[in-house]
Amino acid sequence: MQHNDVLLQATSISKSYATAGGAVPVLENISFTWNRGDAVSIMGPSGSGKSTLLYILGALEAPTSGSVTLDGENPFTMTEMAQAAFRNRHAGFLFQDHCLLPQCSVLENVLTPVLVDGPPDASALERAKLLLDQVGLSGRTHHRPGELSGGEKQRAAFARSLIRKPSVLLCDEPTGNLDRKSADAVADLLLGVHGEKETIVVIVTHSPDLAARFPSRFEMRDQSLHSRP
After folding, report:
1. I want to staple 90 with a disulfide (CB 3.0 to 4.6 A). Which of 96, 120, 167, 228 is the partner?
2. At residue 6, does pLDDT exceed 80?
3. How many domains does the chain divide into?
4. Structural domain span for residue 95
């Protein structure tokens, strides 16, 4: 696949949740096409459906209607096991909570996505160490998460999100728990991924400053996705 080929396409995505009072719509008829190398920020008030859209794009949650294709495949037509394997190969996730395993070292945490294929080989170890060096944690590889600062934990989680060379990196409020300096450092890392033009970066955020740093900006309102200047 060439770098300018379509990588992520949403077609008429809608999502609603059943309640005692009837179906509650969260997303309605959202369509877009994003290409390899795009960097996208999505803003909107709490409860507007930003995170729900992110989870659908990462095959963590199915839409009520519509379709998503990533690398030319629709994960929602797959079995649960095949969908999990697809998600592990093609999607990287970075959440507000770093979700590091406290009993594992930083290096072991970065390697966790590859463990589904068995013990990590030499190339996986080399990539994990390279990523940790790139995020400034080469001196922390054998530390436990409890020995890291909040910013260091999130940088370790960032390295973990890239270990499989994902097609899309999905970030849900990744700087929400960080001070300004650490938040800027994580933003710099995300935009560095964008600069390599290999991965689509999608970030959901409440921070106007962070959102403004991304070349493609959207706002979620009235269950729909709207382009922002």
Report:
1. 167
2. no
3. 1
4. 6-228
